[in-house]
Amino acid sequence: MDSKWLEDFLALSQHGNYSLAAAERHITQPALSRRIKALETLLGVPLFDRTTTPVTLTRYGERFEPYARHVLGTLTEARHELSAMAPATDNTLVMVSLHTLSVNVLPDMISYLHQSEPQLNFTVNASIQGIDNHFNALIDRQIDLLVTYDLPSSQPGLEIAGKLKRSLWRYERFIPVISSRLAGLVDDPEALIPWLCYSDYTFVRRIIEPAEQRVRGRLKKVFDTGLSETIREMVLRHTGLAWLPESMIAEELVNHQIIHCWPQNSALICEIPVVVWANLDDQRAVMRRCWDKLLRF
User: Fold this and answer.
1) How large is the angle between the packed helices 106-114 and 285-295, nearest 10 degrees?
2) Please, are residues 257 and 173 in contact by the beta-carbon 8 Å criterion?
3) Which of 121, 195, 228, 256 has its CA 20 to 30 Å from the CA of residue 141?
4) Does domain 172-270 have CATH number 3.40.190.10?
5) Given the DSSP bridges, would you call strands 121-127 and 92-98 parallel, antiparallel or unpaired?
6) Rounded Cα–Cα distance for residues 166 and 156 (Å)
7) What digits encode the pLDDT tens for the residues 161-178?
8) Which of 275, 294, 276 is closest to 286 using CA atoms?
9) Which CATH number is 3-85's, of 3.40.50.300, 3.30.565.10, 1.10.10.10, 3.30.160.20?
10) How many angstroms separate the CA atoms of 206 and 219, rounded?
11) What pTM does this model have?
12) How far is CA 94 from the centre of its chain?
């Protein structure tokens, strides 16, 4: 569970209005709605009655509210205590990325930076929930670099955008794939194809959903998860079709363990920029050198 979800929950409980709560949290209304839904999915109960105006807590939400306040209070206390214990360091960069990018993109980026900064250490935190809540962490200097896909729906709010800088790293392609053993299902227009999909709350699902909808009539959902490497393993175990980052399955495509489905249909290929965000005011020498190197990539 992300602690930001608890802060979102308390903001919506206080305001009873998604727009006001989103404004307080410095995120978009759709992002707030997704995060509240993810919290409800995790807990397995509805926390808000959305049929009322203003939005009100359900009996589950009323029971959960004091727990949320207690957890956040304890985390804040622990954060302050640990922060006081931690010595300042200039040879470690803290990076946050989507879980998918931590598997197939961050290793390349870290290796690239290490070429000119061999003394540099890296701390990597992977998130499966998207990056809406991490922009503020950049502003607060809790993290140094944020690596994410670049979508119009996932940009920093206007009130903090001017405090951040962005650099393009590369482009990633999500393609529909299936194991070679199941490839015959794709060629049979009457066959339903077992479908391995990303959970609704994930960032990747937003990227590939338009492509999925183009062949939705051919797909029968049999599995969903927030982790791309789990979906990759299920594809290799002949469980169904899925959209995966091309860089994650390059070797399997070459040796024909996995087949690119409908390769002639470009509408089913989702190409998305991968970008790096940093705090504009971070003037540490090591950050300036790393940022200059990223700009030259």
Assistant:
1) 110
2) no
3) 228
4) yes
5) parallel
6) 11
7) 899 999 999 999 999 999
8) 294
9) 1.10.10.10
10) 18
11) 0.67
12) 17
